[in-house]
Amino acid sequence: MEAKRRALVRREPEPEPSMVAHAPPLAASYNDWIRPLLDAVDKLRNLMVMKEGIQLPTIVVLGDQSSGKSSVLESLTGISLPRGQGICTRVPLIMQLQHRRPADSPELHLKFNGKIVNVDDEDHVSDAIVSATDEIAGSGKGISNAPLTLVVKKDGVPDLTMVDLPGITRVPVLGQPKNIYKQISEMIMEYIRPEESIILNVVSATADFPTCESVRMSQMVDRTGRRTLAVVTKADKDPEDLQEKVTADDVNIGLGYVCVRNRIGDESYEEARLEEAKLFEMHPHLCKIDKSIVGVPVLAQKLMQIQATIMAKCLPNIVKKINDKLNANVAKLNRMPKNLSSVEEAMMAFVQILGSAKESLRKVLLGR
Questions:
Q1: Torsion angle of alpha carbons 201, 202, 203, 205, nearest 10°?
Q2: pTM of the predicted model over 0.90
Q3: Which distant-in-sequence residues (6+ apart) come within 8 Å of 107 by Cβ?
Q4: Which residues contact 245 (CB under 8 A, 6 or more apart)?
Q5: Could you read off the pLDDT of 119-170 as tens digits, one per residue?
Q6: What is the rounded CA–CA span in Å between residue 202 and residue 61?
Q7: Contact 209, 247 (CB under 8 A)
């Protein structure tokens, strides 16, 4: 009787993946200790210490045009970004994401050209970015190196700071400069060359990875791939060969791959993540891919872990470089003439200068 009861228990069906009620959260439990490190780096970025030759740990997002880069960033932020034909990102877009408690109201604003523009609704972010980009780079189709910062503070987003760069295109469209490829390439190389940069390379599952221009560029500065993570988009468009592509790793992606499904049509971000989870659970080919490398939540988790590691590694050296710069500048300041607040002080300083000049002249004449 007991054996029969156990047999009946074993035959009970497992729950179907479609019964999952909630999409996996993007924000991780260790956000609280990542946040202070990230705030420190963001403050240094706002102070433009990189212009002083002090490189900051940065996640740099690049990909060929139409690789699905915007879709990946939308999935991480839960906010729609500019879409359309041609280059959608025309300036370096610094995305500062900060998780907030559900009870707190979202906070959205843009920073560019020394000013802050508040955005009152998530649906208006895309238009605000377009307007700010036009102000920075002009209303045409050219690009600019001047950055635009998007600050997103809301429930559910991962604590991340990323720099999104223009999609790589070789052929200029009407209205673009003829050397658009050269301009984009130089901008990308400027951001990915520093050893402190983590390269988030977005490639489409339908593409041949070794022929992707973004892969070629990242290999130029990170040949072993030790600071490159690849995101494979549009997993549902070419599912048969995807497992072989990400396991063969013909292009040296040292930090590994994460495969994702792009949001389709009018799907909400919650619905898109549920559909993504079902796709990688039930598709006859995609279900064979290791679950540790599929899905937007996995991508968010990996990025936060990588970001925390690189920040912990780089911050001591950054502090040293800042102190060295500070001490050098203080020394220069101390060598400058003191501020003279009266005629008497000016006369005394003048007499001292004359005395020094006379002493120097005397040594020259005496041959000393």
A1: 130
A2: no
A3: 100, 151, 152, 153, 154
A4: 205, 209, 232
A5: 998 999 999 999 999 999 998 888 999 999 999 999 888 899 999 999 998 8
A6: 7
A7: no
